[in-house]
Each structure stands twice: as C-alpha cells, then as structure tokens.
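Ticket #4471: structure output looks truncated?

Reporter: J.K.
Steps to reproduce: submitted the chain below (266 residues) through the standard prediction queue, then opened the result file.
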Amino acid sequence: MVVNTLVGDALTQSLSEELYGALRTGRTVAPLRLRHPGLGVDEAYAISLGLLARRVADGERVIGKKIGVTSKAVQDMLGVHQPDFGFLTDRMWIRGEIDVARAGLIQPRAEAEIAFLLREPLQGPGVTAEQVIAATSAIAPCFEIVDSRIADWNIGIVDTVADNASCGVFVLGDTCVSPQGVDLPNLRVTVSKNGRPLSEGLGSAVQGSPAAAVAWLANTLGAYGVALEADEVILSGSLVPLEPAAAGDVFEMTLHGVGGCAARFV
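Returned output as attached by the reporter:
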C-alpha cells in the first residue's frame, strides 16, 4: 500500500518528528507546503500517521476520528476548500474544564459539531449515509477545540492533514439520542460565548448532512485501509464558523432536540 512506502520516507519521518515536537512543546512550525511544494495529500497522510505513531508510543490510545473543513464558512475562513481528516486519542477527550496550558493548546478555536458514537464498524469504499445511521448508537452535541501547529493558521490541505486535521481537544455533551428518525440536515445549533449569542447553524452545513460527512470519512479512510471502528467517537465537522478561544472564555451550545454542551477554558 502506498502509505506503507511513504511512512518509511525520510522526509515524512522528519516532518512527523517536527510536528510531534511542536505538539509537545507548544510551538508552531512554518507551513509544510511552502517549504516542500512537492508534498501531496498521500504524503501528508503518511506524516499524520507518523505523528500518531509517536503519540501512541507515548501512551495515547486511538478512540475515534474526525472530519474537518466540511462547511463553506470554515473553508472560506481557512482558505482550505476540501475536507480533511484526523485521529482522536483518549488524551484529547476533556471531561472537565479545558486547561489551555496543560492541554498544550497554542492557538485554539472552538467549533460546534455533532458527534457520532458508533456501535458497528464502517469501512469504505461504498459506505452510505444510511449505513452510517444504522451503525450509530447515538449522536451528541460536541465542541471540538481545533488547534494548529502551523504558524498563524497559515494552512493548506497538506498542512492540516499532516497536522492531524488541526485537532486539539474535544468535549462531549452529557445527553445523546439515537439518530434513527432524526432530521439530521435540519438539526439546529446555537452557540454563545461568555453569555452572548455567537453563531448558529444547521446540520446541512456539513456536506448536506452530518451522516453524509461521516460516510465521506469512512470512504476516504477506507482507501488507505483504515476503518471507523465500533465504539469510536466520530466528529462530523463544524456547523458554525470557528471562534478563537482563550483562558477565561466559556462557550455553550444547544443542539436543539438533542442537548447541550459547554467548553470552559482556564
């Protein structure tokens, strides 16, 4: 498989180490695409796998996957006009207040999403939105706190894929519901920051439906021999524009008909 070859490449190994160092020291690096114009998405994925391997060797455990840059609002904001994908580990799941320094966050931004909690595995090609719903035990409101190890968020698709889809940490709401019979495209989210209304959006913001976004993820990762596994958490992409976050900020969201979620930064 092409990824196996790429993972062994000296450049991809070097860039994996560089991003791992940035993650652990809380610093940024210059955009990869500008320093290495020949890098493509396959190479970026290999860099991401190398970064993940170092995190796993450090004791982290993969518990899910994420799709990002799915909505037009986020694509326009970041200048990246196709979705990306990354991995979630147990250390990324925050169940209390988000300690910015301890979490190693550099330039965090909050985004409101719908999380899918899988009960059955999904592996492309050919996964449909209907199969995603059938394989999902529940959906839940979620704040993903994206973060970039690339300086000044100056990213292209190669940069964000290599950097684990610019993932930082995530918070799940306490309530969840079965997706069966839920009008996912018309699920509405409202978001506040420090008690003031911030943004709102619909499930249709992510590829027409969050289930379609998860199907895209399953099919894209399937091309690399990677499955969405049973019991994993899958983040389906932001329904609203990203908002910078700092210590002292409190974000709250309501996913109407499902429940709420809060992200408190200290």
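Triage note (M.O.): checked the attachment and the full token line is present. The longest strand covers residues 136-146.
Status: closed, working as intended.
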